[in-house]
Amino acid sequence: MLISPPFLPPRLTHDDDAYLETAMRSPEHGNFPVSHKLSWHGGLHLEAPARSNGREPVRAIADGIVAYVRQPTARPDTASEDEKHVLGYMGWTDDGCIIIRHDSTIGAQNETETPVRFYSIYMHLQTIRGVKAGQTISRKAELGSAGSFEGHANIIHFEIICDDDNLKRLIGRNTGDLNLTTNGRTDAVFGEIYFRLPANTRLYPQRPPLNEKSGSGETVLNEPLFVGVRFGGGNAYVSTYRADGTRVGAALTENNAEYELYRQAGNVVQAYRAARASQVPSHSAVYELLRFGRILGPDALTPSDTPHWRQISTANGQGWVNLNAAGVFKYSDADAQHWAGWKLLMDYDDQNSRCDIDVVRNMLDEDGDGITTRSEAENRMKDAGVQRSMRGMVCKFPTEWQRAGVAQRWNWLTKEGPSSKVGKTPSLMKSTYLSLADFPAFQRHVEALAFWEHAALGGIDAAHWHFHPRKFIEHFRKCGWLSVGEMKRIYADKESVYRDVGQSGDTVKERFRLSLNLVFRKYLLNTSVRMAHFFGQAAQESYFLMATREVAIDVSTAIRENHISAQSEANGYLQITPTNRNQLLFFAEPGRKGYYEGRTSLGNTDQGDGIKFRGRGMKQLTGRYNYSEYWVFRGWLDRNSYDAGWFNNGREGPAIGNPQIVADIPYNAVDTAGFYCAKNNILKAADGGATAEASAAVSRLVNPFERPLAPTRTIETKSSYRILGDEN
Known about the structure:
There is one protein chain. The strands form 5 sheets. Strands 1, 4, 5, 6, 7, 8, 9, 10, 20, 21 and 22 form an 11-stranded mixed β-sheet that branches. The protein has a 5-stranded antiparallel β-sheet with strand order 16-15-14-11-19, with no helix packed on it. 30% of the residues lie in helices and 18% in strands. A hairpin with a 2-residue loop joins strand 2 (50-51) and strand 3. Mean pLDDT is 92; it is low at 29-40 and 422-429. It is α+β, with helices and mostly antiparallel strands. It is globular. Helix 25 (692-702) packs across helix 26 (711-724).
């Protein structure tokens, strides 16, 4: 699922928090209507950022289908008419509204994806730009312009809501706190990786050997702690938390740890080999251990207790812990942990369209006297810690937009006042928010804005879950899992290329989508710019994902004619025979580009190695040596089973009997490219941006011998980034 804020100002920084702060800025009068609200009503008021020719338009936050549209009421021409109008209560309020239903996916358990559905609500629109109910809409599409709220211009009310079932799929549960007696979910895994360390976890002043599970000078933590490991910008950031979310000590930075994850995993494997261990873990499995803290892919970790050493902060300084020790449980941001601020609140029995239970009231009660005044709430809402806590609250309560029952839901305004306790009748010295005489005008205003009955959103009740929109968007921007619809937009302008060879672009892309998501997640390719570079290179290397094996003739002709070199090798890898030799001259005839026979630089020493180890996979893994490196990486081949210098000394080389599996099995085809990216530190080059210069740097790593560089690589990188990134 790709998601972006409802406003897209120019991106002036790579810091996502800073960007969202600019894109989702609340107006000066606060997040709540100035007239009466002191409790959370499930949405945010956002101010449209300024741009050179006015204000940024309101945009769809994700792909979806428009579920409801209400065109805005025309505003009267004069101020006096404004005041008389039902929408002029406390100042003019625009009533234009759009609701989008978003159906997406955020992960998968084996072959089964995790579907999610949520709704985004855009209220107080002044204009709506050609949006119709029932139409499919893409992320970043313009919806209209921000309108007025109680006389304040350029404001929208923005909500994100879902039902019980989808809350469970979105954050892994729909009640209570995260279960700490087992590992977290494995279908959706993204963002920071967390480890719950029991109080008896052993701590060491120096890192023990990479293959050892203990060292010298040990102490114990003496308190349960949570350790978070976050990768980004080439580094790893290691933070320690207590159960209430407070940090312990300073966050530690492991410089270049993200870029060097492949090498670090290799060091662990080498430590086992140097120790002549009876079991040596595969490089791929150790990579996942360091990446996720556990194994999510198909390559088993053997031994399963391979240590994962990290230096952490503690209350008494710093030390080294084994994050794969017995009793350590693993999670990720996808688990929406309570120590990261997530809290589920239910307040729908009183049917008053507000979430004002004690957890909220007490947080805003500045002096702790049981009375939450407006001034107290405003002061507390300026506190950064309070803001973070409220962002993590996911609250279930009735919508404020239902026309029926307005008087019942809002009559607390005539019973409570700015200085009264909840539900208490105000004293003679204190007033209510609204008098009984004023309430009818307010009621008519609320009923005029209401839309719930007309929207008729199927499957979601009037009492539903409300996310803090900033938190929701911030959270799922870490996901990076491409849905069917999002994948369809990649190479969408190349449909004629697919048709010309008798293929359907959507079918080709869907064949690899699940594997692409799994590989992007594993190798940290799941940012918009890194994915864009992958698709840019794959357009050239695998002919827009259609060719996962090197062919003997022009690639488009080979696919169109189902040439023997383009066919599946499910029954065994292709070999040159007297019968087919003329069709395979590209591989069989000396002097041809594909004649790899006898190329010792590629490790091809046995007769038939040339075509046996032709290019396969999305990066076109080529040559017996490169195949052996990948086979060892996956744990399919023991490095001790052959002589490492076979191609120079004539000794026994690696035995690989099924090279075709990296072309015929989608996951393997994509994983070979992920492996190549990790081994050659392509992430660092890709992080240069979706530019011609960065694309050239990536291209030189992918194909060092290509001169000049194929323009397709840069063209498709930029094209993919226009879809995957936030830029318009």
